[in-house]
Amino acid sequence: MSHRPLYKKSPHCGIKIFLVMLLGIALALTAYERLTGFHAQEIVDNSILKAKTFAAPVQEVVSGRGIKAYLLEDKTNPIISVSFLFENGGWAHDRADRQGAAKMAAAMLGEGAGKYNSQAWKEALESKAIGISFSAGKDDFSGSLLTTTENAPQAFEMLRLALTAPRFDQADIDRVRALMLEVLRRQKEHPANELGLMFEEELFRGHPYGRNPAGDPAAIRKLGRTDLEEAVQARLAKDNLIVGIAGDIDAAAASKMLDDVFGSLAEKARTAALAAPEPVFNGVTEQVSRRSGQNIVRFAAPGAARSDADFYPLFIANYIVGGSGLSSRLSKAIREDKGLTYGVYSYQTLDDAVPLLQAGFSTTEDNYGEALDLFKQQWELFGSKGVSAAEVEQAKNFLTASYNLRFASIGNIADILTAMQKYRLGQDFLQKRNSYIEAVTVDEVNAAAAKYFNKDRLQGMAIGSFDKVTKEK
Questions:
Q1: Which element (helix H / strand E) includes 449?
Q2: Which of 90, 99, 149, 158 has the highest CB neighbour number within 10 Å of its CB?
Q3: How many CB atoms lie within 10 A of CB 295?
Q4: Distance between CA 359 and CA 57 in Å, rounded?
Q5: pLDDT of 33
């Protein structure tokens, strides 16, 4: 959800190193899983996070001005993390002629506020080991704060300034604009990036989800201070605000912080949820010819929303078919047995307007035809034949045992508290999440497989060289 910088000049360096080491365990888990197959349980078994429980309940804090937040108080270390988002404030909500406004605004909120110009702002943050960051995703505009308890008063004040008194100095606007245009210029240097842009545009044709996330060059060149002020004022309000707080702070202090930091925001945002797109899923894989060392393929199929009864059965099904690295069904069939790809994957996306099941792989031109056919065969076979009880049990064991690794940093916990509210998962989600996984039956997983894994509803696009494929056909 957000990015938190590390600072060298921290009086709590030992604590931060410890948190980074814990986070490294989680990252190592992912890398190890991808490299060696289903052996991640060994890391889970040996992790100091394995025994972590959530006996302390998540509290709902309501400030004097009616601002709500989820709080998980943890006084183990003198660190406080705040995660927040503004729903319907992301880049898909930019005006058609102002594409890039949300991204530029997010960047500019970190370039100075109040009395602090850009340089003074960064020096003040670094000197106090405070991390403040903002980002504009597809649906939401989000931000985060990480601070030591000692420096929390100044951190909260600086966050308030960033949200309510950003400077938007022209020199900073020009510099951020140049960086954004450079990102756009470089996007098509990598075939995978180009494929992603073309695939999203084709899949969501005419819908804001199909736009370039980095914005439109012509629009970015026109963006000025007035546009940025309008973007912030329209999106950052109390009625679309969700806040998660974790760490060394109690309910009374959290309530005061909510009013101090967010209390002067507008009451109502001037944005609204987007209409759902209408992607076409017809089983076709479009080919885009480019000179490339590999042929890269992307797929999308209908998925299940976070609140859908199918979510957890599909979550387990996806893990088995393509979400478990080299031990997945797709990887075993296409990579291990046939050697047609270095990697193949699938995953769920939960965008507000449309949930999707997505997948992909890369291969050589020579192997493209066979790999594509085998991918679709395995996708269809998974839907028609389903999974075994042993596969479901193994998946459930990993998904429950590894869950605590998500809590390697206090920042991750704040992010999860925010997500719990966005998806209305309930205050007791941390305690109940694993029971939701454990309750899923083999029959439910197979029903989800039959419903969602159908090659005739798998929309695809490939980029690369297809001369040999054409000749063979």
A1: helix 442-452
A2: 90
A3: 27
A4: 37
A5: 39
Residue with tokens 């899983």: 33
What does the alpha-carbon distance between residue 68 and residue 243 come to, in Å, rounded to a whole number?
7
Spatial separation of the C-alpha atoms in residues 429 and 396, rounded to whole Å: 17
Place of tokens 């992790």: 47
Nearest to 245 by CA among 78, 73, 125: 73
Q: How far is CA 110 from the centre of its chain?
A: 20
Tokens 């003198």 belong to 78
The whole-number pLDDT of residue 54 equals 63
CA distance 139 to 338: 39
Residue pair 378/333 in contact by the 8 Å Cβ criterion:
yes
**Torsions phi, psi of 114, nearest 5?**
60, -130
Backbone torsion region of residue 3, taken as left when φ is above 0, otherwise alpha when ψ lies between -120 and 50, otherwise beta: beta
- The closest of 148, 137, 111 to 9, measured between CA atoms, is 148
Please give the Cα distance from 153 to 158 (Å, whole number): 9
Residues of the chain with pLDDT under 70: 1-55, 469-473
pLDDT of residue 131: 96
User: CB–CB of 354/413 below 8 Å?
Assistant: no
Asked if residue 81 lies in contact with residue 277, where contact means CB atoms within 8 angstroms, the answer is no
Phi, psi of 224 (to 5 degrees): -135, -175
Q: CA nearest 416: which of 407, 408, 64? A: 407
If you write DSSP's letter for every residue of 40-52 in order, what string do you get?
HHHHHHH-TTTT-
Q: Domains (ranges, CATH) in the chain?
A: 58-262 (3.30.830.10), 285-472 (3.30.830.10)
Separation CA 180–CA 233 (nearest Å): 22
Tally the residues of the chain.
Answer: 473
Specify the pTM: 0.85
CB atoms within 10 A of CB 119: 10
Q: Tell me the two tokens of residue 145.
A: 């704060």
Q: Give the integer Cα–Cα distance in Å for 383 and 451.
A: 7
**Residues contacting 153, CB < 8 A, separation 6+:** none
- Give CA–CA dist 253/59, Å, rounded: 13
